[in-house]
Design goal:
alpha+beta; Ribosomal Protein S5, domain 2; Pdz3 Domain; 2 domains; 6-stranded antiparallel sheet; globular; PDZ domain-containing protein; Lon_proteolytic; membrane; transmembrane; Ribosomal_Su5_D2-typ_SF
Length: 369
Amino acid sequence: MSESAGSRPEISGKRPRRRHDGAVVSGILTYALVIVAALIPVPYLIQMPGPVVNTLDEVDGTELITISGTETYEADGELNLLTVAVAGGPERSLNASQVLRSVVAPSDTVVPTEAYYPLTTTRDDVTGQNSAEMASSQATATAAALGELGIEYDSVIAVSEVVAGSPADGQVQARDHIVSVNGEPIGGDEAAAQTVADTVRGADTVILGLQREGEHLEVELEPADIHGQQMIGVTMSQAYDFPFEVTFNVDGIGGPSAGTIFALAIIDELTPGNLTGGKAISGTGAITPEGAVMPIGGARQKVVAAADADSEYFLSPAGNCAEVLEAQGSSELTVVSIDTLSDAHAAVQDIAADRTDELPSCTGGDEQR
């Protein structure tokens, strides 16, 4: 009797051999491609919470801020400056796997490198810029602190850089103080620098009055076209003549964002008692010589750092409020919104005295009093 068309075929004692060679090879290739893709350099940098430094404490046995030439007072408590660690950037490429890990990390921020640095920027450029911004923040913090305390000081317009091959090259030197232009005395504020620039743009000849190491000089310059503008080829900045010396022991930290905390620490050392009342206060904010507190980058990472350091209070520039409130760890802190050094000074005094019910707070970017 023959087998019907719909019956099952006879099964032998040996199972048919399955071929996996193609699938195995495909899987290996896919895995290898994933590995290679993960290691490809990508043009991004990662911002992460950095070290927390108490400006009222010592660093390697030396006070972080030392004031000499006037009476000072011992300060206690915590006025913490906050930092942002950066991975990647010019000459320090990251790979895709590093970036992907930080994309999902709530404490990190991934940004295109070009958002911060032009393509031609070198690592030395970054280091130099950060150092210059830190030095500037120390000087402006000192000016703001003295202004808050009503202590007089002098300011001048100084030459910070001379462009090689420009009309000023060979006649003007870095660190010269510009005291007059075409015979007209100028002050030491930002308006004075603008006066010099405006005069240069509208004149065939400019006579600069300079102070160089105590000597008065006059130099005559003919402005030239530089990058499409009439210039003499100098970069100007404010410099200060303070009635006493303020020295900062800060290494390996750059940028302008410590200005507000520096100013508060100087105020603490120049006034009797403990400004903080022994409280743990962290904060951030660039500052102007007039005491205006400016928003900064990396606020999200600084909140995380402050919370991890067990700070009780966080002083935030009003312009950073929205970012601060969204940051991991903000619920563990009392966030205080500040627009000026006077705001920050008053807030710290209130914190020290436990008058915290009416501290100005962040509410989605606006200050609430």
